[in-house]
Structure prediction request, 514 residues.
Amino acid sequence: MNYADLFRATLPETALEIAALLVLVIDLGFLRKTALKTRTAVAALVGVAGCGAALWALQMQGSAGLSYGDSVLLAAGGYIAAAQAGILILTALTLLLLIDSAFTRNAGEYVAIVLMAAAGGLLIAAAQDLLVIFVGLELLSLGLYILTAFAKSSGKSAEAAMKYYLFGGMSAAFLLFGFSYLYGITGSTNLHAILLAVYGWNAYHAAPLLYVAIVLVLTGLGFKVAAVPFHLWAPDTYEGAPAPAAAFIASVSKVASFALLISIATAASHVFDGRQFTAALTATVIPAGAPRPHVYLGFATPWMLILTVFSVASMVLGNLAALAQTSVRRLLAYSAIAHAGYILLGLAFFTYSPLSTNAILYYILTYGLTTIGAFGVVSVVERATGSDKLDSFLGLHKRNPLLAGVLLVLFLSLAGIPPLVGFWAKFNLFVAVLSVGAGPVPFALVALAIAMSAVSLYYYLQVLKRAYVMAAVDESPIKSHPVTLIVLLAIAAAVVVFGCFPVLLQGWIASFYI
Prediction:
C-alpha cells in the first residue's frame, strides 16, 4: 500500500471532505451577511454538488480496494459500490430538504457535518478491518449526535441528542470490547482472517469467549440499526431532531450500518464456501485423538440465533408500539425498528449468493428513499401546523392535494402494498429467506413478518384516514417550497416506477457487479 493507493481508494470520501470545507469557506467567508434563506440554499446546493462529485469519484475508483499486505482494509465494487452510491444519493436528497428549513442560522456548519458523516458512512460500507470499521462508525456517529442537537431553540432536540449520545457511547464501548476479544482470540483485525481463524482449531477452545465477543459486537451494531432491545434512542431522536437530520439518520446511517452487516455475513459465508475452510483446517495441527470441531460452533449458529432473536423482537415490538403513537415522527421511529427486524431476518438466513445480497440491498435502499420522503412531508405539515401529531394531518388532501398524494404513495409503500416498491422489497427479502431451506423455522418467521406487515398497514392507514377521510379543523392551504415539493414528487414517482418496473432498480444494483 502507498499513498497513491490510499488516495484512489478514498477518493469519494475525499470529495465529500473537500465539499465540506468549501461549504464552510463560502458560508463563513463570503455569505456571512447574506439572508439566511440564501445561505441555506447555497450551502445545500454546494453539498449536493459534493455528493455528485463523490458519485463521479466512485466511478473512477474502480474495484481494486485498499490492501495492506495480505489484508484487505477497504473493499470496492459490487454491493459495496451500490451501497455507497445509495448513501450519496440519499444524502443529496436530505440536503435538498434543508432548503425550506429554518431551524438553524448555521447552515454551512450543518451541511459540512452532514457531508463528513456521509464520508463516515462510505467508510463503514467498504470497511473490511475492525479498526477501519470503528473509525467509520465513530465518524458517522459523532456527526449524527451533533445533527440531532442542531435545533438550538428546541428542548426536545437537546434532550434527544443527549440520550442519543449516551446510548451511542455505551454501544461503542460494547462494540470495541467485542472487537478486542475477537483480536485476542484470532490475532487479527481483518474480517476474513478472523473468520478463517474462528472456523479453525485455534479458536475451538476459546468458544465461550468467542460467543461473548459475538454478543458484544451485535450489541454495538444492534444500536446502530435500532434493533430491539437497543432501540430506546430512536423514538426520542426521530421526534426531537430537525426533520432533515431525522431523515438523514433514518436513511443514510441505516444503509451504512446494514452494508457493514452484509460485509460480515458475506465474509462468513465466503469463508464457509468450502475451499478456504478446508485450507484452514488442513493447515492447523489438531492433536491426535482430539475431536474435530464442528464448523457451526465457530460463528454461524450464535450469529444466526442472535440475529433471529433481534429480528423477531424488532418486528413485534416495533409494529405493536407504533399502534399506540399519536406523533407521526414517533410512529415512523417504531416503523423503522420494525423494518430493521425484517432486514435482520434476511441477514440471519444469509447465503453467499446474489439473491440474498441484492434482496437486502434492495430493501435498505428503497426504505431509505421512502423514509426521506415521509420525513419531508411531515416537516412541511409540522411547519404549517406547529405539530407532528396525527390530527395535524386532518384534511390534508384539501389543504395540499399533491402533498397528500405523496403521503399516500409513501405510506402504502412502507406497508408493502403492491405495486409499489415496498412490496417488492419485502417479497424479494422473504424469497431469499425461504430459499435457504424449506424447514419450518424460516417459513414460520416469514409468516410472522407478513402478519406484522398487516399490523403496520393499520397504523399507516390511521394517518391516511386523517389526510383523506376525516374533516379538517382548519382548511387553510398548506404551502411548501417549490424545491421541497419537486423532491417529494420525484421520490413518490420513483417509488411508483420502481414498483411497477422493479427490474430498473435491480438492474442498477447489478450494474455495479460488472
In short: The longest helix spans residues 155-186. Residues 3-513 form one domain. Residues 274-297 have pLDDT under 50 and may be disordered.
